[in-house]
Design goal:
The structure holds two protein chains of two kinds. Chain A is built from 17 helices and one strand. By secondary structure, chain A is mostly helical. Chain B has a single domain, classed as Cytochrome Bc1 Complex, Chain C (Up-down Bundle). Classes of the chains: A mainly alpha, B mainly alpha. At the A-B interface, strand 1, helix 2, helix 5, helix 11 and helix 12 of A face strand 1, helix 2, helix 3, helix 4 and helix 5 of B.
């Protein structure tokens, strides 16, 4: 083996692999054996452990299990204070969105999936209900009001719900000026309990497969997060790489998930943009390892290759 | 009047035809990999470590992923929730993905410590890393396509990351229809191309020699 030389010399003199003495190596046999091993392993693990499959939460489940949360969520949609109503792009322009340093990347993406939370998630679904004169009257009153009046009603009712024990609508003081909001929220809960809310929130197409609005509504409430946190899926519980039950999930996302657990990301309002920016930088570094001075020399500094090629190095030493 | 006779015109030297696109492509394919190296039955002496197994193991696991995934598509998007055979196929798909990612990560680390980009193998490394990233994206869309509680939660969380950098305006993780098509068609196609290019580059350049060897030792 030659004496160490400069990195440039080493790089330029890496010899042609085809010039070395060879030994018998059956690639096809290796592939067939590897394939057999993988089939046996995957099949065996499937038989032994099956796969996670916890039923999705329906909007009916939500209404039955957490009616107060449904009413509070509907009220926040009407007040324009829910997470989706204040989200910003791509759903609306009501929030600036996150920034990566001076770059407003979220805003640059544009409002390409427009969602008006009060109209699309509450009023429109309720307007599909027929045969309910009280609801029709409440919807008419809502439609006739100014945006300021609607906001005042909804915010007053949201505050009253917040002060009621358990957020129970039945225990909200009746003296407040809530306008039609209690009637709308109650009808919304009734619609959700019937199981009809999903169909009116879904894509207008007969063949609709888009659940954007249903998922935005569900995640505006606290029930989904409560269920997720109970299964260790919360953002501060390494949730993006976890899976329901005792399944391995996506452990290859450990580094992405890791940043959300530490400062300054954990408490930053721009955590998602910052983590994405950092991961893009690290990813670029990984792609460009061969041309980044220093980084490309790490394998020389930490000689794990001596272990990998120990047989060959030993043979060469004995031949000298 | 006598007919005048002109000296015979010498035949024009035929100009060589420019190679056709077909011929150029054929030559390109023929010379991409040195003769006998597409599927060699011999390897350099230094190819003697268990680390080398993980490259082939990655391809083998990918084959199981693709076959089990194709089997899942037969019954549609949600059949495996209510069918025992479907649940088994889904389980095989899940565990083959776990195995695939595990052996690929070992393969990647092995190649890092071997500095396997040396000797003109930069693009071999780059295509390998891109295939790794493509695999993460493909697996992620698979998790979004489970149509269960986990998919609900992951999608509502993932949207924040994608939206924060403007990608969510085009890649809507709350739309299972879009995610399923990305998972079963678009991303596997991209991944497949990357894997093929990566393997061809490996065969073109051969297995990287040990570090600090400057010429073949005979």
């Amino acid at each position: 083996m030659s004496a160490p030389t400069s990195e440039r010399t080493r790089t330029s003199t890496t010899p042609d692999a085809h010039g070395f003495p060879t030994r018998r190596y059956d690639l096809v046999k290796e592939l067939v054996i590897a394939l057999a091993v993988m089939v046996v392993l995957a099949g065996g693990l499937a038989v032994a452990f099956s796969s996670p499959d916890e039923r999705p939460i329906s909007l009916r489940d939500w209404a039955v299990s957490a009616p107060a949360d449904v009413v509070a969520t509907a009220t926040s949609e009407l007040a324009g204070t829910s997470p989706s109503a204040t989200y910003g792009p791509p759903y609306n322009a009501d929030g600036g969105g996150q920034t990566l340093g001076p770059l407003p990347l979220q805003r640059w993406g544009g409002v390409r999936i427009p969602v008006d939370s009060a109209r699309d998630l509450v009023i429109t679904p309720l307007s599909r209900v027929t045969g309910d004169p009280a609801l029709t009257a409440a919807l008419d009153r809502w439609s006739a009001a100014t945006p300021e009046q609607r906001s005042a009603w909804a915010n007053a009712y949201a505050a009253a719900l917040g002060g009621a024990p358990g957020g129970d609508p039945a225990r909200v003081p009746a003296s407040g000026d809530y306008g039609p909001v209690p009637a709308l929220a109650e009808s919304f809960l009734t619609l959700a309990r019937t199981g009809g809310l999903e169909s009116v929130l879904g894509s207008p197409s007969f063949f609709g497969t888009d659940t954007t609005k249903s998922l935005l509504l569900l995640s505006d409430g606290s029930y989904l997060e409560d269920q997720a946190r109970a299964r260790s899926l919360g953002g501060d519980q390494w949730g993006m790489m976890n899976e329901t039950g005792n399944y391995p999930g996506q452990p290859w996302m450990w580094l992405y998930t890791f940043w959300y657990q530490v400062e300054p990301f954990a408490s930053s309002e721009n955590a998602d943009a910052l983590v994405w920016g950092l991961m893009m930088l690290l990813t670029l570094a990984l792609v460009l390892v061969p041309v980044v001075p220093g980084l490309r020399s790490v394998p020389r500094w930490i000689p794990v290759h001596r272990l990998i090629w120990r047989q060959w190095y030993r043979d060469q030493a004995s031949r000298r | 009047m006598t007919a005048s006779t002109r000296p015979p015109v010498p035949p024009a030297t035929p100009r060589p035809e420019p190679p056709s696109w077909t011929a150029r492509l054929r030559d390109r394919i023929a010379h991409t990999v040195p003769p006998g190296q597409a599927l060699p039955d011999r390897q350099p002496e230094y190819v003697a470590s268990w680390v080398y197994v993980f490259g082939v193991a990655t391809l083998a696991a990918l084959a199981v992923v693709l076959v089990s995934g194709a089997a899942l598509t037969v019954g549609g998007e949600t059949w495996w929730h209510t069918s025992s055979p479907g649940r088994f196929v889904n389980s095989v798909h899940l565990w083959s993905v776990e195995l695939f990612m595990a052996v690929m990560v070992i393969h990647l680390w092995g190649k890092f410590w071997m500095a396997a980009w040396r000797g003109g193998r930069t693009m071999t490394w780059v295509t390998g890393v891109l295939a790794f990233l493509g695999s993460i994206g493909t697996a992620f869309t698979g998790y979004l396509s489970q149509t269960n509680l986990d998919a609900q939660w992951i999608s509502t969380q993932a949207k924040d990351g994608l939206n924060a950098v403007g990608i969510g305006a085009y890649v809507n993780v709350l739309d299972p229809g879009q995610m399923l098509l990305w998972h079963v068609v678009l991303l596997p196609l991209v991944l497949g191309v990357l894997v093929v290019v990566h393997v061809v580059l490996v065969r073109r350049h051969g297995v990287v020699p040990p570090i600090d060897v400057e010429r073949p030792v005979r």
